[in-house]
Sequence to fold (602 residues):
Amino acid sequence: MPENINNANTSNWKNKSTILIVDDEQVSRYTVEILLSPEGYNLEFAENGEEALEKAEALVPDLMLLDVMMPGMDGFEVCQRLRNNKRLAELPIVMVTALDDRESRLRGLKAGADDFMSKPYDRAELRARVHTITRLNRYRRLVETEEQLAYLANYDTLTGLPNRNLLIERMRQTLDRAHRTHQDVAVLVLDLDNFQMVNDSLGHEVGDKVLCEIATRLTQAVSIQEATVARLSGDEFVVVFDTDNLVKEVSHKSQGLLDSISLTMIIDNQEMVITASIGISVYPSDGLEAAILLKNADTAISRAKAADKNTYQFFTTEMNQVALERLILENQLRKVLANDELRVYYQPQVESSSGQLIGMEALVRWQHPKLGLLSPIKFISVAEEMGLIVDIGKWVLQTACQQTKAWQRAGFPPIQISVNVSSRQFKPPHLLKTVKEALANSELHPIYLELELTESVLMEEKSDSDNGILGVLTDLRAMGVKIAIDDFGTGYSSLSYLKRFPVTTLKIDRSFVQDICTDDNDAAITTAIIAMAHSLSLSIVAEGVETLEQLAFLQDKQCEIIQGYYFSPPLPVEEMTHILEKVIEQPLYLMKNKENLDGKTF
Ligand code: C2E
Ligand code: MG
Ligand code: MG
Fold:
């Protein structure tokens, strides 16, 4: 931005060059006047240093002819002062010295002179030099003026943000790019709530300062490099950015903007709180062009204002619904432990060769007061993003260990419990401490505990440091806790980490098991995973076994452990207790039960 945009002197805009001649000798001044006046310049004069500075400040000339030898403030000092004056630092200065006064010329250069001329003046030289310098200076000013005009056309002078013009241009570029990369673009129009009141009650000057503060806060809060933040008009601002995760990222960003705007601001020693409403439209679903997207975001604003102010609204109703549900979910999820709304369900695992119940997987559920029993698929990833998974995971681990020990105390055959562990919980040393506490509190022997983690956890570990994941797993194994890789086959399925980490079990993902009887590829992959587990002496569990055919296939390939609806879905404590009771009477209860139901035998 050109610096002197607001105080551009009028001489910047005219063609006739102004020359300020500074000389204490009247004869000299007169000579220059005679030599230069036919050229059509605007000539101004100063008799001493002080007057030179004053006139330079007032006139902002195109050139100063500055005599070195003057009583009082000499030419060097004048020159130096001008160079230190921000506004006049660029003023072309030609110093007038005695012929061949080398020392003065050196001093003049140091003081910041652009050129030198000797007295007495040579008529041709004077005219030529003045002509060249004023022409260059005029050209420079012309360029500056063009820059200024371009700036004025594209930027808002109050806040320095892009204005509507530049916004539309930038939006066009962003939309073109999004079209090529198949991304969504969010257009957030933000309007301050009751801003008119600020203007009316505190005056426009305060209003302007508020707008500048809002511009700064918006720019800082957006924190995406490619985002465009612009001022549309009055108290309307726009933020545009492209996104891969539409509703989630956009709602978070919008809430972040609202939060940062509503922080108390102090303007002219007055504390005030300003809020805003945001309307959101999305490319391509709400429009393909900048103008339409802005119009639709504007429509959404009116809804936000009508609803509650200090809030955001999507243009599309379905998106509002998704955003709202997520917001509600997040808020309620925070209280899920305090409200005692989590439940652990237990899904039996059956040994395929003997038909005996040998383990269970603990699977969390949310007993929501209004929505009923919610699957972990609905809330685990949100809990992970919010960091709540650490506490939730700890609670599941403790509950599962306690329940398993309670069953053992009640005289049921001791079976193993598998508990899912999120990668977020895997930041040492939390997990080790959490596991030790859960085992100590429940008095469950570590050999009955298995932790299920996903391949991604192991892939995060870069080096074999003891402090990292490898260290934690090694300590857990040393205690006797087993380590299973969940959903095996869906991730990287790299063999190298299976050797590096003390893994005991692989769980073949449900997506392979599902089609083992119909899809040759899935059958081949499953067979290979089982063979690999055997060669590495790992236990192998097939998840999601639903049919007798699947079971038969897996038995044939000697897959050791079977988990799935075929035997039982995950069950609440009472129902699992019921199964355990049956198993005491009849160790092959689960297997036999199915035989009876299906009328088939093994
Ligand atoms: P997962 O660990 O792979 O658990 C197996 C999922 O498959 C469970 O879903 C289970 O109900 C389901 N399932 C079992 N047998 C069958 C079957 O025969 N057919 C079908 N269609 N599905 C079957 P669920 O309980 O909804 O859990 C989903 C995922 O949520 C789990 O996948 C696990 O990754 C995660 N999860 C559950 N509880 C916890 C927890 O306490 N902590 C963490 N971090 N994640 C958990
Ligand atoms: Mg699991
Ligand atoms: Mg799984």
Observations:
- Residues 486-487, 507, 509, 543 surround magnesium ion (ligand 3) (CB under 6 Å).
- The longest strand covers residues 357-368.
